[in-house]
What does this fold into?
Amino acid sequence: MSVENLSVASNTVAKKGVVIIGAGLAGWHVIDAIRAKDTEIPITLITADSADRYHKPMLTMAISQNKRASDLVRASGSEAANTAEVTLLANTQVTDIDPVSQTVQVRSTAQSDDALTTIGYEKMVLAMGAHPIFPKSLPQDLVWHVNHIERFSQLQEKLATGSQHVAIVGAGMVGTEIAEDLLKAGHKVTLIDLNDAPLSQMLPAKATARIAKAIESQGIQFLGGYQVSAVTRVNDDDNNHDSEDAEKLQVDYASLSSDADNTDTQPLEPLIVDHVIASTGLTVDEQLPAAAGVEFDRRTGIVVDAATLRTNAANIYAIGDCMSINGVACRYVAPLRAQAATIADDILGHEHSGYDHKPPMIRLKNKAISVIVTGVPQAAGNWQVKTESDDELIMDLLDDNSAVSATVTIKVPAPAVPKA
It folds into this structure.
């Protein structure tokens, strides 16, 4: 089996089997898990991109390592499809899902016409991931995101021309990791967040204050408690160039803690930067879940049964960033292998003990400070200090029964000893 171009007539129904929508880590993990136990069952993989296999978490570390997109790709989509003996429909958009007839309608984005192809399925896996949230103040034609290898490649190409000033909006895990990566690559970095410190939606103030201090000590400018109101393009008159590369961006922002009684408050001077990256969270597109008739939550994604990862629609499963378990979005890489194994067993009719969801260990990849979180952290709650010193902080989050529901361990790495 191999890559197929959608040149067949409308209302053609392909052979049935397993249809997987989405060729990120989650989709490929399901293919690996099924093929490990059954080499014959037909699998069709549908994706809007090329389906290249790569490890997405590497995107927040790759610029400082001078790695291009081609360095991160482990196998092209066509190569991986041939190896796994699956039918790959790359550069293909799913336009509709009919859970009654168990068919999906697709069209090729590589062709000029809008001809639709209908594909039948016996089992379907929704592995379509989540996409970045762009507030109105962050226009998509001016602002980057680092959530897909194609956009990463385009940004990396722009940054390869020399040291530049990059503003990152959003100081969660990804934004904080990208900030250090860009700094190590020789760029000037400004990190902006609504909260007073990075990771404030996850951890208590005592912990996040240490993270803020660590990243600022590196030379990253952190603007906490500020909201970006607009990003606009301005001409770089100082360089007197007409090319697109000479254009700068203006970032307007305002304090969220302004004193309403202070009538002398002056407007903040806008930032003039070369690039703006949005790291303002993820959301799941509801179009396909709605078409498939699966239970969906706008905040957390597709609702699945915790033990089988089945949706409420017959023969449809979900995995990865697009799904939620017990009201919590599952947007970490570590559990994907176990999730895929459960789905594979269930699809193939094998007996299995069910998926046992355990919150993965969360590790910030920054070198300036070590942050490890276990359990289900939330900023608000009964956090208790367990260990506190200049170079280490350990805190436990206690639930209503005084049981530990999360733990954060923060350490400041010892300074590197210069070589003689």
Residues 85 and 273 are 47 Å apart (CA to CA). The first strand starts at residue 13 and ends at 14. The radius of gyration is 23 Å. The domain at 362-411 is CATH 3.30.390.120 (Enolase-like; domain 1).
